[in-house]
Design brief:
116 residues; mainly alpha; 4 helices; 0% strand
Length: 116
């Protein structure tokens, strides 16, 4: 894996957790609190924050798709995980595993090249 692909995967990992937590925060603090109390001033900032994080997640996912040459099914899975509350946390776990696998593969290739 080249450095551009690794950095694209890392960016997607960095944004997946905040995006995954912003959606439940919007649902709980924005929607529920505005209905059961007079606290309605949280809806707008949480909505804007979640919208920005979701757009960044989608852009970073497209970047990874372009650089890592992922199949469409894998990209669709990560997009669907972004639509579920806390789904990005599972996506982060999958991305962490993918990063670890790519690092181990790069080390194996480097050792094989040094041995030859």
């Amino acid at each position: 894996m080249d450095i551009k692909t690794a950095s694209a995967l890392h960016r997607l990992r960095l944004i997946s957790v905040p995006e995954a937590l912003s959606f439940p925060a919007l649902l709980i603090f924005g929607s529920v609190l505005s209905r059961i109390s007079d606290i309605d001033y949280l809806m707008m900032p949480l909505g804007i924050l979640h919208g920005i994080l979701f757009v960044l997640y989608a852009l970073f996912l497209l970047d990874v798709w372009n650089k890592a040459k992922w199949p469409v099914k894998k990209v669709a899975l990560f997009f669907l995980l972004a639509l579920l509350p806390f789904g990005g946390l599972y996506g982060d776990k999958l991305l962490k595993r993918e990063e670890a696998d790519s690092v181990m593969a790069a080390r194996a290739r480097r050792e094989a090249a040094n041995a030859a």
